Amino acid sequence: MNKLLVSALLLVPAAALAASAFDGTWKMRVGSIQVTGKPDVWVIAEGTYSCASCDPPVDRLPADGAFHKVSGHAYYDELQVRVLDARTAEITQRQNGKTVVVGTMQVSADGKSLSNKFTSFQGAQPVTGTFTEKRVAAGPPGSHALSGSWLQDQMTDASDALRTVSIVMSAEGFAMQSNGQSYSAKFDGKPYPVSGDPGNTQVVLKKINGRTVEEVDYRQGKVVDEIQIVAAADGKTVMMSDKDVAHGQTTTMIFDKQ
After folding, report:
1. DSSP state, 17?
2. Residue pair 68/78 in contact by the 8 Å Cβ criterion
3. Cβ atoms of 123 and 110 closer than 8 Å
């Protein structure tokens, strides 16, 4: 599952205390999401699951339907992999005994695409969505159909709790609120925490001009995302570009003023 996509949407920034091109409530345009860069790489074979594109990678975790400990991940410390049939698998992430994300991935009959239906419990309300991925490379001979390299194609569904953010910007900084996660950060080059984020993300902001803000996200002591947010001159849309440093993927999306 594209965890990173779920994380990017929940952490879209917003600003503090003055009328600006960013101020208001915004809703992500589902069909606008585009992902470029390195693919997601999974292998289910010989009763195990591996994820080379995860950060850090997961190597030969038993795919036996039980939860197994993993280390080094900001948002989960256990994984459960259930093979449902020859084309379908369910992956559940858990942190401190609590389920945080469940994703069901099903490969098409021709093996060229997959659909990922997910539910995330990381915010104030559960969020749901569905996205598709296109096959980039095949998996090893004899492996499960899900095995191989995949790149996200499009999002086909997303709940309002996932899509909606409130933004306010002042001359001094940004403030954001989205499904129980928020921050208020100044344009002073200092890190500020994202309240309600189980991954303990910190943000550093830079104001480029009245319609462009750059954000760098830090997690576990390292840069994880480099984000640019641009408000349209007509005040009707905001464009976000999120470069996921660890995964080598860039996600762009458009938000419409409500």
Report:
1. S
2. yes
3. no
Bridge partners for 174 per DSSP: 169, 185
Q: Give 142's strand partners.
A: none
Beta-carbon contacts of 232 under 8 Å, excluding residues fewer than 6 positions away, are 21, 211, 238, 239
CA distance 58 to 50: 5
- d(CA 144, CA 141) in angstroms, rounded, equals 9
Q: Could you give the CA distance from residue 258 to residue 142 in angstroms, rounded to a whole number?
A: 50
Cα dihedral 61→67→69→75 (10° resolution): 100
Q: What is the pTM of this model?
A: 0.89
For 162, phi then psi, to 5°, come to -80, -30
Residues 6 or more apart whose CB falls under 8 angstroms from that of 128 comprise 117, 118, 119, 120, 157, 158, 159, 162
Q: Where are the domains of the chain?
A: 3-34+162-257, 39-160
Task: State which H helix or E strand residue 258 sits in.
Answer: none
Q: Could you report the per-residue pLDDT of 102-150, keeping only the tens digit for each?
A: 999 999 999 999 999 999 999 999 999 999 999 999 999 999 999 999 9
Q: Which of 76, 30, 88, 62 is nearest to 254 (CA)?
A: 30
Instruction: Return the CATH number of the domain spanning residue range 3-34+162-257.
Output: 2.40.128.20
Please give the Cα distance from 78 to 102 (Å, whole number).
12
State the pLDDT at residue 16.
Answer: 36
- Beta-bridged to residue 224, according to DSSP, are none
